[in-house]
Write a structure and sequence with these properties.
The chain is α/β, with parallel strands linked by helices. It contains 26 helices and 27 strands. Helices cover 38% and strands 16% of the residues. A seven-stranded parallel β-sheet has the order 16-15-14-17-18-20-24, sandwiched between helices. Helix 2 runs parallel beside helix 14, helix 13 packs across helix 16 and helix 18 runs parallel beside helix 19. The protein is globular and about 95 Å long.
C-alpha cells in the first residue's frame, strides 16, 4: 500500500467515524411509531387553539429573510430547500382534528415552489411584508413557503415564511445553518450521499404526551402561583381594548444604550452570580414595580426544551412558558431586586418541564388575563439580530421583516449590538391592551435602570407616590338595570354549552369554560345574531352582559356604516364580491364572511336588496346575470370574488356572465360555485375530485364546464382560481327549501306529502364496479359557505368537491314520510334510466375538515328545518 493510499484510507475511516458519532448524537430515541396520528405537543396545542379562537392574523408567522449580494444559484437553492423539507418532517406536517382533538399528520416530501418576483431593492419592504403576512392553513399546509425577489442579476432577497407551530428560535437557527450547508454542497457539486437521520418532532410530541405528570412540579407551581393575578396595565386611552379588534397589534418603542452598556450589565450580573438574561429580567420587574407600585408581579420567560443530545438538531416548537413570581416586598435597590429574581428563576427552572397548560388548569380562573390567557401577559428576553443565511461567495445580510404584531401584552427586551448598530432597549406592546403613553413611561424606566446599573452596578428603585388601588373582592356587582338587549339569549347559549344558567354577570371561566368551548359559544352566537364574533371575543368579554353589549355595539356600527341600497362607494381593502347575495348559498356566504370580518359587496337584483342578510360593511351592488354592464361594474375594485349566482335554466346566460366578470376582475382569488353535474355520467361509482367528465353531460353541466374553463384559462397556474363542485344544497332558506320541490327530490316530496306510495327514482344501470347503491350527494349551505370563504383565503388553483354526504333514496323517502306524518309505503322503481348522479358517490378529500357536519347540519336535521320553514 502506497503512502497516498494509506492517507486516503485513514481519511475515509475518519469520515466514517464522524458519521457514526453524528448519528449517535442525532438519532431519535425511542423510534417513532408510524401507526396512527401523532398528538400535538403542549406548546403546539396551545398555538392551535389560538388559531381556532380567531384574531391571530399574522401573529404566529415567522419570516426569515436574507439579502444576497453576489452569485446566487436559484436551482441549487431550490434543491437545498427540497432537501431540508424532506429531512425535517415538521416542515411538511399539517394539523387536523378528529373528535374535537387535533393531531398532526406528516405529508410525503414534495418540491417547495420558489416564485421569483422582479423588484427594485428599495421596493422590497412592502412585498416582503405582504408575503410574510399571508395566513397559513394549518389543516391543509404547507407550513413553509418561499419567495425570491430579484433586484439585479447579482442581487436578491430570499424570504422563507414559516408558521410558529413548526419552528421556534432555536429551530430557525438550525434551518438557516443546514440550508446554507446544503446549498454550498449543491453548488460545489458534492454528491448527496447518505445523510444522518434528523430527529422527528412527532417523536418529541409523543414522548412529551406519554410522560407521566410531574406531581412534584405541578404541586410546586400550584403553591407558587396561588393568588397571583395578571398585572394591571393602563389600557388604550381611546378605549379600543373594550371594543374588540385584531389581537396582537404590536408597537415598538426603542432607546439606545451607551457604548459599553452590555458589558457593564454582564459585570453587574457576575457580581451577583447572575446571567445577562437575569439582569434584564430583573430590570423588567423593576420597571413594572416603579410604574405600578405593585410588589406581586409575574413575568413569563421562554424556556427551551432541547435538553437531550438527540434533540439538539430538532426543528420544531420546543419551548415552554416559565412564569416567574419573585417576592419583591421591601426591595429598595436593583442589587436586592436582582438577588431575589435570580433565586426565584433558579427555583422555577427546576420545574420548567411542567407544561404551562398543566399549570393553567390548576389556576383559579381569576388568574387569567383579559384575553383568556393565563396570568402571563408580560415577558422579557435578550435578543440578537435576525437570523440570516450564509451562502458561499456572496455577501449575506439578514433582513428584518416587521409584521406589527405582539404575542404578549408587554415585552421588555435588550437587543445586543449587531452589524454596527448599538445595543438598545426595546419595549414591544399590544396597542389594544396598553396605552402608548404608559408604554413610553415603561421604556424610560427600563432603559434608565439598565443604564444606571451598567454604569454603577446598582440603582435605586423609585416607587409611585400612590399605588393603584385594587378593586375589593366584595365590591357590589354592576346594576342589573338596562341590560343589553341580547343578554338573555347569550345566557341561554352559556346554559346550553356550559350546563348552568349563569345570570348576566356569570364568568365564562368560573362556569368551567375553556378555549374550545369559547370557539363553540362564538359559533352559536354568530349563527343567532349574524354578527362577527370569535372565540377570543368570548375570552375577552366573558360574561353574558359584556358579550351582549359587544353584539349590540357591532350591530349598531354595522348599521351606521352600511350604505343605502344602490349606492356604491370605492371598495375597501379586502372586499369580496358575492354574486347571488340573496340566494340560498349567497346568504350563508355573507354570514360566514361577516363572521370573519371581511367587507362584502353583494350583487343582487334591485327588487331583492332588502333581502340581503346583515353583515359588517355590506355594500349592495344592484345587477343581474343578464346585464353584463352591471357585472363589470360590480367586480371593479374588489380583491376577491365568490360567484354563486346561476340561472339553472339558461347556460348561455351563465357563460356570458362569467365572461363579463372576468373581463373586469383584477388579480386575486376567484371562487366559482360549480356542480357535480359537470362530471356527466362517470363509469365508476366512486368519483375522484377533478376526474374528467364523461358523456352524456346535461346542458346544465355543460354550462358549468364552460364557465370553469373560462375561469381557469383566465387565471392561469397559481392565479387564485378555485372551482368548487357542489351537489344538492340544503339549508333553512326560502330558495333552498324550494329544492325539495325539484327533480327527483321533488317527486319524492310530493308523493310523501300526498300519503300515497312513494316510488324511488330510477337510478340507472349498475356501474361496472357492481355497486348497487342509489341516492344523491348533498351539502349543507353553511358547510359550503365555509368551503367557499376558505378558498378566498387559500385558493386551491383547480377543482375540488364540496360534499357533505350521500343519502340513499330509500332513507330519504322514509325520513320524508316520517317528518310529514303520512303513511305511504316506499317502493322501488320498476324502470331504469341513465341518471346523472343516482349511482355516484363523489369523493371530497382536499377540504374534508371543513365539510364535517356541525350541530344542526345532519341531513335529517336540515330536512326537518326546511319542512318546518
Amino acid at each position: 500500500m502506497t503512502a497516498a493510499q494509506d492517507v486516503a484510507r485513514q481519511e475515509e475511516l475518519l469520515r466514517r467515524a464522524r458519521r457514526r458519532a453524528a448519528g449517535a448524537r442525532t438519532a431519535p430515541a425511542p423510534a417513532r411509531e408510524d401507526a396512527g396520528p401523532a398528538p400535538l405537543s403542549h406548546a403546539q396545542h396551545r398555538m392551535w387553539l389560538m388559531e381556532r379562537l380567531g384574531h391571530t392574523g399574522a401573529l404566529y408567522n415567522v419570516p426569515f429573510a436574507t439579502r444576497v449580494r453576489g452569485p446566487f444559484d436559484r436551482e441549487a437553492f431550490g434543491r437545498a430547500l427540497d432537501w431540508l423539507v424532506r429531512r425535517h418532517e415538521v416542515l411538511r406536517t399539517r394539523y387536523r382534528q378528529a373528535g374535537g382533538e387535533p393531531y398532526q399528520e406528516v405529508l410525503p416530501p414534495a418540491p417547495v415552489p420558489v416564485p421569483v418576483v422582479e423588484a427594485a431593492a428599495d421596493a422590497a419592504g412592502p412585498l416582503l411584508r405582504a408575503e410574510a403576512e399571508r395566513p397559513f392553513d394549518l389543516a391543509e399546509g404547507p407550513v413553509l413557503r418561499a419567495l425570491l425577489l430579484r433586484h439585479a442579476p447579482d442581487d436578491h432577497t430570499v424570504l422563507l415564511t414559516l408558521h410558529h407551530i413548526a419552528v421556534d428560535g432555536g429551530g430557525l437557527e438550525i434551518v438557516a445553518r443546514e440550508l446554507g450547508d446544503r446549498y454550498r454542497a449543491v453548488v460545489e457539486g458534492r454528491p448527496d450521499g447518505p445523510e444522518d437521520p434528523a430527529p422527528r418532532y412527532t417523536d418529541f410530541a409523543r414522548r412529551e404526551r406519554s410522560a407521566p405528570e410531574d406531581e412534584e412540579g405541578t404541586a410546586y407551581w400550584t403553591r407558587r402561583l396561588a393568588g397571583a393575578r395578571p398585572p394591571a396595565l393602563p389600557g388604550p386611552a381611546d378605549g379600543t381594548a373594550a371594543t374588540g379588534g385584531s389581537r396582537g397589534e404590536g408597537r415598538l418603542l426603542t432607546a439606545l444604550l451607551p457604548t459599553g452598556s452590555v458589558e457593564g450589565l454582564r459585570e453587574a450580573g457576575r457580581a451577583h452570580r447572575a446571567t445577562l438574561f437575569t439582569v434584564v429580567l430583573a430590570a423588567a420587574f423593576g420597571a413594572l414595580l416603579e410604574a405600578t407600585g405593585r410588589e406581586d408581579l409575574v413575568v413569563g420567560c421562554a424556556s427551551g426544551h432541547r435538553d437531550r443530545a438527540a434533540d439538539r438538531n430538532l426543528v420544531g416548537l420546543c419551548v415552554n412558558t416559565l412564569p416567574v413570581r419573585p417576592d419583591l416586598s421591601g426591595t429598595e435597590d436593583f442589587a436586592g431586586l436582582l438577588d431575589r429574581v435570580r433565586d426565584e428563576l433558579l427555583r422555577a427552572q427546576r420545574y420548567r418541564h411542567v407544561p404551562f397548560d398543566t399549570i393553567v388548569r390548576r389556576l383559579d380562573p381569576s388568574a387569567r388575563d383579559t384575553d383568556g390567557g393565563a396570568l402571563v401577559g408580560v415577558t422579557a428576553d435578550v435578543v440578537s439580530g435576525p437570523v440570516g443565511l450564509r451562502l458561499p461567495d456572496a455577501e449575506c445580510t439578514p433582513v428584518d421583516v416587521p409584521l406589527g404584531t405582539a404575542k404578549f401584552g408587554l415585552g421588555f427586551f435588550l437587543e445586543e449590538a449587531v452589524d454596527g448598530r448599538p445595543a438598545r432597549c426595546v419595549v414591544q406592546y399590544d396597542a389594544r391592551r396598553l396605552d402608548g403613553g404608559a408604554a413610553r413611561a415603561l421604556l424610560d424606566g427600563f432603559a434608565g435602570l439598565l443604564t444606571g446599573v451598567a454604569a454603577a452596578g446598582n440603582a435605586a428603585l423609585r416607587r409611585p407616590a400612590t399605588a393603584p388601588q385594587a378593586v375589593p373582592e366584595d365590591a357590589p356587582a354592576p346594576s342589573a338595570e338596562h341590560l343589553p338587549g341580547p343578554t338573555p339569549e347569550v345566557e341561554a347559549v352559556f346554559a346550553d354549552l356550559l350546563g348552568e344558567r349563569p345570570g348576566p354577570d356569570g364568568d365564562f371561566f368560573l362556569l368551567g369554560g375553556h378555549s374550545l368551548l369559547a370557539v363553540r359559544v362564538a359559533e352559536r352566537l354568530r349563527e343567532r345574531f349574524h354578527a362577527p364574533l370569535t372565540g377570543l371575543d368570548v375570552l375577552e368579554h366573558r360574561t353574558p352582559r359584556a358579550l351582549a353589549a359587544l353584539l349590540d355595539e357591532r350591530t349598531a356600527r354595522r348599521a351606521a356604516a352600511r350604505p343605502a341600497a344602490g349606492r356604491r362607494t370605492s371598495a375597501r381593502a379586502g372586499t369580496v364580491l358575492v354574486t347571488g347575495g340573496t340566494g340560498g348559498v349567497g346568504a350563508f356566504v355573507l354570514r360566514e364572511l361577516a363572521a370573519r370580518g371581511r367587507p362584502v359587496r353583494a350583487l343582487v337584483r334591485p327588487e331583492s336588496t332588502h333581502l340581503v342578510p346583515d353583515g359588517p360593511d355590506v355594500e349592495i351592488a344592484e345587477g343581474d346575470l343578464t346585464d353584463p354592464d352591471s357585472l363589470r361594474a360590480a367586480v371593479r375594485g374588489v380583491d376577491a370574488v365568490i360567484h354563486s349566482a346561476c340561472t339553472f335554466t339558461s347556460p348561455e346566460v351563465d357563460v356570458a356572465a362569467m365572461r363579463a366578470l372576468l373581463a373586469e376582475r383584477r388579480p386575486g382569488p376567484f371562487v366559482f360555485v360549480s356542480s357535480v353535474d359537470a362530471y356527466g355520467s362517470p363509469s365508476v361509482a366512486e368519483v375522484p375530485e377533478g376526474a374528467p367528465s364523461e358523456e352524456p353531460v346535461s346542458a346544465y353541466g355543460r354550462g358549468k364546464l364552460d364557465c370553469e374553463r373560462l375561469l381557469l384559462e383566465a387565471a392561469g397556474a397559481g392565479g387564485g382560481a378555485s372551482v368548487v363542485r357542489a351537489p344538492i344544497v340544503w339549508g333553512d332558506h326560502p330558495r333552498l327549501r324550494d329544492q325539495l320541490r325539484w327533480g327527483a327530490t321533488g317527486d319524492l316530496y310530493q308523493a310523501a306529502r300526498a300519503g300515497g306510495p312513494v316510488v324511488l327514482p330510477a337510478a340507472g344501470a349498475v356501474p361496472p364496479s357492481g355497486d348497487s347503491w342509489a341516492g344523491a350527494p348533498w351539502i349543507h349551505a353553511a358547510a359550503l359557505a365555509r368551503v367557499l370563504t376558505h378558498c378566498v383565503e387559500r385558493p386551491v388553483d383547480g377543482v375540488v368537491n364540496a360534499i357533505g354526504g350521500h343519502v340513499a333514496w330509500a332513507s330519504f323517502a322514509e325520513e320524508l314520510v316520517r317528518l310529514l306524518g303520512t303513511s305511504g309505503p316506499v317502493v322501488p322503481a320498476d324502470t331504469s334510466a341513465p341518471g346523472l348522479r343516482h349511482r355516484h358517490r363523489y369523493r371530497a378529500e382536499a377540504l374534508a375538515e371543513l365539510l364535517v357536519p356541525r350541530a344542526g347540519e345532519g341531513w335529517r336535521e336540515v330536512l326537518g328545518a326546511m319542512l318546518r320553514g
